[in-house]
């Protein structure tokens, strides 16, 4: 024993860990007090058992505290939710079974509940998951301003396809800076007088339509996808990009990824064991490399895109960067001077994918814009009287072009109203979703929504609510966005031909029940920008072509929800009939 003590003393002077000293002290005290003699190994085992028991006790206390806290939160949630009206929960598992009832969608369940219980209802998605749906415009406005976060799984589609990035992230703190930068950039572009992207984009699209026009017409979804991609591509890579052979590859890759993105994100556990998943991941990597490749050329003033195909091939082969055929992508440092990265060096956390944000925005912009254009085209071919009036409006404005042609769209109230009305009747996203994970949400009315509840706005119900839109809320009527006034341009005589003579476009965002672009803290920042571009492109198209529904295609305007986007179903074939000019 003396050896052991000597050892301990030596250790005390050295840097032995204190736990070892503890063992030695323990052995020493045991050796002195116990009458029976234990071997050191027995003593060590005894000590280890006690330590292990202590550890188990600690774990037990920690887990019990955690569970008690959860239980406390659960009771708090149940107690606070009591004040919110809603159908009684049919079982411990909540209302989930209701949603799986055949031919009964989530919106149907919400619609039924709202009719019965008023503009704010709760539904239990499970014993611990509370969903609160709001349809009252004033409450919605307040809620969308106060609840800044989205659910933790929001953006999984983007994350899986494009890696770690800040835009579209659940936490507002994380997206805030990027939102501001992108919004400023888009705003600057709108103000730039020499930015004639809309005209070039429109020319490019008309050329394409000329090439793919057949006697049977063009599939509306296909042409809309192409228009949306052209708009987004020109916006982020410059209009020279459109003429590049890489544009077609890029578009194809994007469409392939868009088709499967929601499917792979729907897995709770990412299916690493499936070959198809790895094939999808491979496509995503190719897209990433191609984006970097294109951006690198963008940095050099987009000269590449004005060059011949041969130049493109030569230049590419000299580069370390490989294109869509796979392999190595260039480093994020190469893009530091691209506007998306400007001023962001201080905010980059190092984990972000260099092109993640651009791919996210292009993806979101393409998906939503193409859904909106399909929707507008379908409305125009189904309401020829409106198409004729829009055409008259375009012709009149065209006779007196403004200083910058792309500003002319602001002198076409009926065209803009048609776009807004199409977005109202078929919003691209059926639901806005928010949450406040940490704090209860207190409304001016005194209502409190407990922290942790999922907040949703069933946009379609709000958009078709008679109390906000009148008795014809479900009908297509662009005049919902127009009011009679004295503003407008062109001669009164001319404008009276259009039937919208003294009509003025109301600011759609003044109506709290208009939410295709969301509202509040996390509202879409691309709204103004995309409306202007879509209107410009449509004006150029309608000036050149009369749109007709191919008699063979189905006029049924049933809608489906695909990849979280509303779509007309079945797809209409549109004839682009050339006008005499
Ligand atoms: C017709 C086209 C578009 C529609 C219908 C649309 C719709 C939406 C909607 C509904 C949201 C969510 C808003 C909310 O939760 O309150 C959103 C978010 C967003 N949109 Fe759009 N969008 C469109 C085009 C664009 C474009 C062209 C851009 C950029 C160039 C853009 C950038 C964004 C961004 C960055 C967010 C994320 C905001 C955040 O997470 O904080 N959008 N958009």
From TrEMBL:
Q: Identify the cofactor(s).
A: heme
Q: Name one GO biological process term.
A: pollen tube development
Q: Where are the transmembrane segments?
A: 54-72
Q: Which residues bind heme?
A: 524
Q: Which PROSITE patterns match?
A: CYTOCHROME_P450
Gene Ontology molecular function = heme binding; iron ion binding; monooxygenase activity; oxidoreductase activity, acting on paired donors, with incorporation or reduction of molecular oxygen
Stored SUPFAM superfamilies:
Cytochrome P450
Query: Which CDD domains does UniProt cross-reference here?
Result: cytochrome_P450
Keywords in UniProt for this one? Answer: Heme, Iron, Membrane, Metal-binding, Monooxygenase, Oxidoreductase, Transmembrane, Transmembrane helix
The record's similarity note reads: Belongs to the cytochrome P450 family.
- Any idea what this protein is called? Cytochrome P450
Q: Which organism was this protein described from?
A: Glycine max
Gene name of this polypeptide: LOC100809563
């Amino acid at each position: 024993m003396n050896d052991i003590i000597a050892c301990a003393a030596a250790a005390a002077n050295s840097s032995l860990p204190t736990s070892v000293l503890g063992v030695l002290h323990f052995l020493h005290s045991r050796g002195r007090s116990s009458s029976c003699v234990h071997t050191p190994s027995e003593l060590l085992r005894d000590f280890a058992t006690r330590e292990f028991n202590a550890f188990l006790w600690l774990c037990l206390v920690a887990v019990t505290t955690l569970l008690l806290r959860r239980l406390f939160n659960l009771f708090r949630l149940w107690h606070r939710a009591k004040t919110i009206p809603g159908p009684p929960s049919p079982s411990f598992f909540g209302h989930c079974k209701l949603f799986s009832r055949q031919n009964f969608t989530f919106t149907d369940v919400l619609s039924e509940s709202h009719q019965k219980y008023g503009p704010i209802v709760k539904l239990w998605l499970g014993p611990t998951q509370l969903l609160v749906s709001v349809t009252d415009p004033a409450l919605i406005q307040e809620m969308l301003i106060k609840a800044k976060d989205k659910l933790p799984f929001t953006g999984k589609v983007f994350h899986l396809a494009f890696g770690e990035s800040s835009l579209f992230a659940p936490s507002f703190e994380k997206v805030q800076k990027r939102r501001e930068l992108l919004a400023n950039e888009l705003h600057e572009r709108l103000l730039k007088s020499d930015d004639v992207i809309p005209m070039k984009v429109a020319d490019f699209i008309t050329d394409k339509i000329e090439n793919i026009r057949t006697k049977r017409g063009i599939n509306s979804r296909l042409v809309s996808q192409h228009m949306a991609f052209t708009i987004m591509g020109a916006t982020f890579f410059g209009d020279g990009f459109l003429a590049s052979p890489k544009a077609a590859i890029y578009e194809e890759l994007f469409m392939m990824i868009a088709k499967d993105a929601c499917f792979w994100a729907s897995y709770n556990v990412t299916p690493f064991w499936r070959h198809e998943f790895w094939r999808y991941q491979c496509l995503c990597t190719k897209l990433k490399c191609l984006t970097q490749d294109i951006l690198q050329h963008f940095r050099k003033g987009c000269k590449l895109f004005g060059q011949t195909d041969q130049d493109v091939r030569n230049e590419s082969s000299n580069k370390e960067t490989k294109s869509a055929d796979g392999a190595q992508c260039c480093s994020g440092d190469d893009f530091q001077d691209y506007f998306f990265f400007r001023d962001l060096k201080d905010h980059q956390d190092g984990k972000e994918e260099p092109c993640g944000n651009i791919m996210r925005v292009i993806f979101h912009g393409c998906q939503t814009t193409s859904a909106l254009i399909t929707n507008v085209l379908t409305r125009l071919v189904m309401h020829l009287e409106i198409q004729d009036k829009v055409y008259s409006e375009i012709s009149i404005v065209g006779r007196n072009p403004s200083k910058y042609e792309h500003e002319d769209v602001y002198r076409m109230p009926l065209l803009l109203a048609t776009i807004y009305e199409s977005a109202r009747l078929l919003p691209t996203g059926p639901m806005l979703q928010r949450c406040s994970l940490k704090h209860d949400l207190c409304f001016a009315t005194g209502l409190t929504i407990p922290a942790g509840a999922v907040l949703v706005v069933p946009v379609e119900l709000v958009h078709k609510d008679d109390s906000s839109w009148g008795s014809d809320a479900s009908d297509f009527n662009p005049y919902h966005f127009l009011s009679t006034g004295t503003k407008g341009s062109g001669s009164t005589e001319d404008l009276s031909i259009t039937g919208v003579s003294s009509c003025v476009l109301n600011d759609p965002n003044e109506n709290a029940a208009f939410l295709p672009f969301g509202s509040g803290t996390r509202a879409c920042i691309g709204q103004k920008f995309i409306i202007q571009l879509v209107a410009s492109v449509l004006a150029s198209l309608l000036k050149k072509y009369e749109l007709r529904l191919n008699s063979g295609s189905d006029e049924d305007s049933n809608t489906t929800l695909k990849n979280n986007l509303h779509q007309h179903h079945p797809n209409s074939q549109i004839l682009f009939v050339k006008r005499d000019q």
